[in-house]
Each structure stands twice: as C-alpha cells, then as structure tokens.
Write a structure and sequence with these properties.
Order of helices and strands: HHHHHH
Largest sheet: none
Number of strands: 0
Number of domains: 1
Shape: elongated
Oligomer: single chain
CATH superfamily: lambda repressor-like DNA-binding domains
CATH architecture: Orthogonal Bundle
Number of helices: 6
Radius of gyration: 19 Å
CATH topology: 434 Repressor (Amino-terminal Domain)
Structural class: mainly alpha
Length: 99
C-alpha cells in the first residue's frame, strides 16, 4: 500500500519556474518589487506565501493565485503534528452528550 504523497515546499516550484524562464531570484525580485532576501526566504520555505504574494506570483508566472496558496497550505499542513487524542476526546464527549 502506498503512503501519503510527498509534499514539496512551494519554493521548489518557484525554483523550477525560474529555471524554465532563465530568470534568477534577483530577476523575480525586480519583477515583484520585492527584496531578493524575501524571494530567497520564500524559495527556501522560511517565509510563507501570503495571498498578496500568491497574486503577484500568479501574475509573474501566468498561473493562478489559488495554485500558490494551495501549494503553501498543503506544505504547511504536511508539517503539522497531528494529535489523535483530540478525536478520541471528541468521540467520548459525543457519547456523554448524546440523548
């Protein structure tokens, strides 16, 4: 049985887009009107893609803002530690409050 799909940071996709276009991080920074350091932080998953940044990336790469927000959300969710005791407590609470 296959495990969950591997999730990559959105920066990996940005890196691929830059390479495909022959652009550097500095080029993208100029296009977006952002500091190069900010672009580097996004690419290296040290800074999240905000809705505003998603819109700007969509304009630069002819994609949708939703693509970038979905990539960001999927990546961040993949890093969250799940607590199975929450579901157990909710189930127990449902049993005690059922008519």
């Amino acid at each position: 049985m296959a495990g969950p799909a591997q999730v990559f940071p959105p920066g990996d996709f940005i890196r691929e887009e830059l390479e495909a276009r022959g652009w550097s991080q500095a080029d993208l920074a100029r296009i977006l009107g952002r500091p190069v350091q900010t672009i580097s932080m996004i690419i290296n998953a040290r800074k999240e893609i905000t809705p505003q940044t998603a819109v700007e990336l969509a304009e630069a790469f002819s994609t949708s803002a939703q693509l970038w927000l979905n990539l960001e959300a999927s990546y961040r969710l993949s890093k969250v530690t799940r607590d199975p005791s929450i579901a157990a407590r909710a189930k127990a609470m449902s049993k005690t409050t059922a008519p």
